[in-house]
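As the next step, I needed to go through one protein, both as residues and as discrete backbone shape codes, included below for the reader:
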Amino acid sequence: MITLPKLETRAMPSLLEQRNNYMTNLETLIEKAKTETRALDDEEQKTFNKLKEDINNIDKTILAEQEAEKLKSAEMQQTKTPEDQEKRALAEDKFIRFLHGETRALDVANNGAIIPEEISSRIITRVRELSPIYQRATVFNVGGDLSFPAFDSQSIVTDYIADMVALTAQNGNFTSRKLQNFIAGSLVTISRSLMNRTDFDLTSFIVNMMSQSISNFLERELLIGAGTTAMTGIFTDANVTSVTATGATAVTLDDLISTQLSIPEAFQGQCEWIMNKSLVATLRKMKDADGKPLLNPDITQAYGWTLLGRPVLISENAPNTMTTGLKVLSYGDYSGMYIKLAQNIEIQVLNELFSTSHATGIVGYVEADSRVIEDQKISVLKLA
């Protein structure tokens, strides 16, 4: 009878978790035969073929899901009515005329002009595509402050009482966490010669440049934003659960397990790791007690790696200093991070400032803020 290792999974494991389990069992089967310097027997070969079939079926299912998403996206594009297309073309025409100096083309305010909704939506959509952390957060595309009530469950205490003794009334404590309006700007300079070319898609160029700049800014702030007078990042938010490592200059397997287990089981299904690539490089060289690497390659993931069964997100903006008291990685369901990003984007065209360079400057302003509101979903690991 072949005994394969029992792997710990949740009641409803994802396809990826099932695939990882099958791969582990398959590798264990092969390793056992190699250790004993023999070929697979009939029963082992039958088990191998079954595992291989299960893995192939999961791969086909994952591929089918990806193709279905592409078809859904293509269908959404095709369902645009001629009126929608005409509206977008008109908005782009107004935008281009404004960039060339026709101030009446858009509604101009004291601090700039409001980009047509069609252009703003393209920028916001592109920002979402470029930043995986922004993708996973809970986003509110509104202006003005947002307040979220938070109930302190510790304010209600259940305990034993003596018979015929009245309970003491207790008040539930509600606190409030606010998302404010912090203004950030990005500057794009464009050659006048390039702007005047009829074969150059100026709108797409500006959308891409601004989206790249805004997404880089947001990812940095969502991770290490200082708070108070700026956006609050995951690694600086006092609400986030902090796990203290056993060492002051390195991360161990036990530290990773403790960090993962600090998140309630109810939220584990969407949890992921976030870390700097320098820490990824360190973890790739680490092995468990059985000599197996801690990081496992997985081509179904965006960044190609899993750690303790969960995907790893790599960010240049995550902390990369391994020093006493510093936070070095995060684990959690990042829908617990709330972002307020105003849908309207204001712009200013700077013709004179860059005239000596035969260029035009385009400044885009956004209003944004962020905080971890559902702190039970996210934790960080801090060196001792």
Summary: The radius of gyration is 26 Å. The first strand starts at residue 108 and ends at 109. The domain at 107-150+171-384 is CATH 3.90.1690 (phage-related protein like fold).
